[in-house]
Amino acid sequence: MVRDFPALPGFYQALFLYIEPVSTISPAILAWFFPGASWFHHELIPSAIAASEPLDARTTMAIWQLGNCYLLLGLISSLVFRAIRDTLPNTPEAQERILGASFTALALADLTHIAASFIGLPDELKYSFDKWNPMTHGNITFVIFLFGARLAWFAGIGRTTYYYRKRAKVD
Asked: pLDDT exceeding 70 applies to what percent of the chain?
């Protein structure tokens, strides 16, 4: 059953209620279960050499904790955004205001994630986009797309705005 969600219509609803949660929960599963922490670690920076060396306990823990952060982002997008829709169905201003606060936090996280991922790449890979693997494109290219979609949402592109971009009424 499709529910009306005025503050998150059409494209935005598909992206932020379905695609983004799947794209953030999936890395958690990949890191925790299959192919596992070692594979995940070695995919972070593209290499022609397939590394199969086991990780030390600290690195494994860090990868699992990173997976937990991905899971958290996916659950916030999925569960909190649905709670906004279901709890405030007739209050698009409130929906938009709460989504806007969430999108602000996520947009700031997008920028720092993009920067950390790009800066962490070896110099010979930074501008060799054809040498990036799916993990690198996910961490940089796809996050740039998500950031752009959040900016478009704030700008009111392709949707009716209820709170943002409205002038305060003067009594």
From this structure: 92
